[in-house]
Design goal:
Elements: E1 3-13, E2 18-23, H1 28-32, E3 36-40, E4 47-56, E5 61-65, H2 71-76, E6 81-85, E7 106-109, E8 114-123, E9 128-134, E10 137-142, E11 148-152, E12 157-160
Parallel strand pairs: 7-12
Antiparallel strand pairs: 1-2, 1-6, 2-5, 3-4, 3-6, 4-5, 7-8, 8-9, 9-10, 11-12
Length: 170
């Protein structure tokens, strides 16, 4: 069986063994459809775990696995990769469709200050989210008409009017 990487376990979350994760190549709807997920510390799946809980928030995704009941076990999974069987992963959309063409674009505020670079765009149930490299951190910015002022195709930049504090530390 071949596997496809769908994300990374970033770190433990809380004391009960839950995990803070980052998705890649799939959206949260796909993650919600899963009963099991495979994980491994390299490029191959090492073990399968049943998903016990899933909590999706604007700034984070928290995953619970049946076999991970405490923080100590969760700590052992830090930076592990998440996999699923390749045949169940939906086919990627046409790269010219949707927002894929905007990956790598810069983001500037109305005053022209550079805020970061778009790493990926995720579809969330409420709205699409820009995942932006902001300094050394990744930040999420809701992709809404209220924030998006203009897209400068020739400069590969988004001009955004973000509320004060949106990019501040959590």
């Amino acid at each position: 069986m071949s596997f496809k990487k769908i994300g990374t376990i970033l770190k433990p979350f809380g004391l009960e063994g839950r995990l803070l994760i980052r998705l890649e190549n799939v959206d949260t709807d796909f993650l919600c459809s899963l009963k099991n997920v495979y994980w491994g510390h390299g490029s191959t799946a090492e073990e399968v775990s049943e998903i016990s809980s899933l909590s999706i928030h604007p700034q984070k995704i928290i995953l619970g696995l049946e076999q991970v009941a405490d923080r100590h076990k969760a700590e052992q999974l830090r930076q592990a990769n998440l996999f699923v069987p390749a045949e169940i992963v939906p086919e990627p959309e046409d790269p010219q469709a949707g927002y894929a063409q905007y990956i790598g674009y810069g983001i500037r505020d109305r005053q022209g200050h550079f805020l970061g670079k778009i790493l990926r765009i995720e579809s969330w149930p409420a709205q699409d989210m820009l995942i932006v490299q902001y300094g050394e951190d990744e930040k999420m910015i809701p992709l809404t008409d209220n924030f998006l002022v203009d897209i400068l195709e020739d400069r590969q930049e988004f001009i955004m009017d973000l509320p004060e504090g949106l990019l501040d530390e959590d």
